[in-house]
Amino acid sequence: MTVKQLSLPELVDACRDLGVPGVGLWREPVQAYGVEAAAKLVRDAGLTVTTLCRGGFLTAIDPAERAAALADNRRAVDEAATLGTDTLVLVSGGLPAGSKDLRGARERIADALAELGPYAEEHGVRLAIEPLHPMYASDRCVVSTLAQALDLAERFPARQVGVTVDTYHVWWDDTAPAQIARAGAQDRIHTFQLADWTTPLPEGVLNGRGQIGDGSIDLREWQGHVEAAGYTGAIEVELFNDVLWAGDGRELLAETARRFVEHTA
Amino acid sequence: MTVKQLSLPELVDACRDLGVPGVGLWREPVQAYGVEAAAKLVRDAGLTVTTLCRGGFLTAIDPAERAAALADNRRAVDEAATLGTDTLVLVSGGLPAGSKDLRGARERIADALAELGPYAEEHGVRLAIEPLHPMYASDRCVVSTLAQALDLAERFPARQVGVTVDTYHVWWDDTAPAQIARAGAQDRIHTFQLADWTTPLPEGVLNGRGQIGDGSIDLREWQGHVEAAGYTGAIEVELFNDVLWAGDGRELLAETARRFVEHTA
What we know:
Two copies of one chain form a homodimer.
Chain A: H1 8-18, E1 22-26, H2 27-33, H3 35-44, E2 48-56, H4 63-83, E3 87-91, H5 102-122, E4 126-129, H6 146-153, E5 161-166, H7 167-170, H8 176-185, E6 189-194, H9 219-228, E7 235-237, H10 242-245, H11 249-263
Helix pairs in contact in A: 1-11, 4-5, 8-9
Domain Xylose isomerase-like TIM barrel (chains A, B): 12-254
Keywords (chains A, B): Isomerase
Protein name (chains A, B): Sugar phosphate isomerase/epimerase family protein
C-alpha cells in the first residue's frame, strides 16, 4: 500500500531491483490480479509475502452482515495461505450505525475470533489484531490500544491470534512498550509496521501517514522495543499518503528503502 | 468557545435569557474585552465563570520560550482570579520542532507545574491538566490520557493541580473510567466537559467536534462516571466546530442547551 500506484508486476520488479526481500500485500490488488497468479508472480521473483492485509470488520450486529463478514474473513485466510504468508492482519471495524457501545463491539470481535481462529490455524495462518490510532475508534477500528488488542488475543492460542504493532498507531501511548513486552512474552507479535506521524492531518485522517523520518516518531526506539520482546520477523513499511501516491512509484519505493536504512537499526 | 461567533455581552445576554447559570471563558476574548470589564459584565449578570481556558504550552526547551510560557501562565492565573473562577484549564503543549521525545516533553510539564502550582494556589486557582485526544500528541498536547495527566498531577497537592475530563478526548479509552475514579478519590476532577465524536474529521482535526447527541459518545455514561467519582461541579459544553460557528450564535446556544437537557441526566 506504500506504493499503491504500482501494479503487482511493477512492484515485484521494483522490489527485486532494490533488493527488498519481502512484501506485505493487500487483498484488493491481489484479487484483481488473481490470487494464484499473484502467488506465482511473487514466488517466482523470490519474494516473501510478509503479511496479507486485511481481514476484520467484525463488529456488525445484523446477523446477515455478520455472516458475510465471517465468510469474507475465511476467504482472506484462504488467500493468505495461497500467497504463502502465515499472517493475516485484522482491522477490527468501527461502531455499527447509531451504536455508542464500544464494549459491545469489542466483545463481538472476540466472538468472531472464536470462529475464525481455529479456521486460520487449520490453514497455517495467524490472525494479527491491529490496534488502530484512537482517531479511528468510531468508524474503522474499536480496538485502539495494544492493551485492548492483547486482552482480546489472550483468549485464544498465540498460534491463532496475535497483534500487529504499527508505530503510527501506538507511538503516543506510554504504556505501549510494556504491552509490547507482554505480547512478546506470549509470542503474539505477529508483525511490526512502520509509518511516521506528520501533521496537519488531512480531512478524514486516512491518507496522511508520514514518510519514514519525516515525523515525530523515534522509529529506532520502537524497533528496539519489539526486538527486546523477541521479535525477529519482517519490518514492514506502510504509508498511506495521497501526496506520495501522486508521484512516481519506483522512486517512492527507492526513497522509502533509503529512509528505512537510515532510520532503523 | 461553543458559540465563538457571539461577543461577550451577547453571550452573557443569551445565557441569561436561556437560564444557563455558568460559562467557561477563553482568554483571548476576555483580554480583548478587558479582564476587569469582563469580570464585571459576567458578575452583574449573575453568571458563574466555571473555568478559564487556557494556560499551558509548557513543553519548550529554549530557555527564553520557557520563561515566556511561565510568565504567560502566571498572567492566566491572575486573569482567572480576577474573573472569579477557581479553575484554569491547561493544554500542555506539543513536541518542540524537531523533537521526538515525548517523555522529555512530559517531564518539562512537571517542572513547570512545580513553579506554577504554588503561584496558582496563592491566587485561589487550581490548574486542571487536560489530556487531549492522542491525535493532538505531536502538535498540541503530549498529555494524551487521563492516566498520564494524573501521573503528572499526583506530584502536587490536589488544591494546586488536577485534571479536566473531556468526553471528546477520552471516550475511546477503556481505562478512563478507572482513571476517573482515581482522580475523584484524590479530589482532582477540576472540571468536566462534553463534546460528541463525529466523523469524518476535518483537515487539521481541530474544529470538528460534534454537537451533543450527534456522535458516538454515550455522554450520560461518562457523566455517571464522574458523578460516581464524587464530582459535583459544573458540566461544560465545549464544541469547536466551523460549521456550527458559521450559523447564528443565539440559536446555537439554545440548541446546545436543549441537547444538554436531552443527553445528560
